[in-house]
Write a structure and sequence with these properties.
Layout lengths: L2 E2 L2 E2 L1 H8 L1 H5 L3 H15 L4 H12 L3 H14 L11 E2 H14 L2 H13 L10 E4 L22 E4 L7 H16 L8 E2 L2 E2 H15 L1 E2 L4 E2 L1 E2 L23 E2 L2 H15 L5 H12 L1
Antiparallel strand pairs: 1-2, 3-4, 4-5, 6-7, 8-9, 10-11
Amino acid sequence: MPEYAGISCPGMDYYIENFEEMKLLGRFAAGFSLVSFILTSCTSGSTDMKNLKEQIKGDKSMSLVYDMAHRIISSGLNAGDGYGEVWIRDFNTFITAAMDVMPADQIKKSLNTFFMFQGRTGDIVDGYIGIDKADLDNPSGYKYRLSEYAPDYAAHKNTVETDQEASLVQAVYQYVEKSGDYAYLDETVAGKTVRERLEWALRYLLNEKYSAEYGLLIGATTADWGDVQPEHEWGVEIDENTHYSIDIYDNAMFVLAIDDFLAMTDDKASREHWQQVCDG
């Protein structure tokens, strides 16, 4: 039975072992249920947890959830009818399910598109959209960036967030782990290998989003899905009114991303560096 921050918690163990199934329930439902599930399981006996595990594993509705998820994802990688973009946060959530219904080349193309828009300091965009659908001339909307490597798309980055880079690292890890296509890490995208771009993204977080005072990542205080701040009508850009904060989610995502990256590199110096960062 593992311990998390000194707390013996078999519920967390089950969640980690069955993350593939749990995450398909949806970001809101899974997030709310996970909090309740962990709080309950950390105070329950092992017998209760064993019974709960059997109930979940025997729940026939899980097959229905899988079928519904696969049908929805097979229609495209964008985040639903209301959004034309492919978002890295969402893609990271359902990439393994997408691999069940889409060819590997399509999955890799989407991952590569995010790399093609990687910023000069290593940052990763939130999402990309067909350039014909992007409102490029709206001064009150997204500040789109264009790329010579992906001329058919426009991309944007919500600077109030701190999870885009970690999301892409995790998504790539899930792809190579499920497909076995570890050679993808050595493929070149816009002049750098995938592995180099992943490490560059992690270094961006240390260089631009790290608080030496607290030893943690920072970001704006946000609402909604964690991607807008209340100080501005549009709310996606850090500005002079931003209230900075340190949140559990962004830092947990960073640790998970480092752990995934360590599984994707054999470089000794790189491994030592990121292990030290992860250990604090």
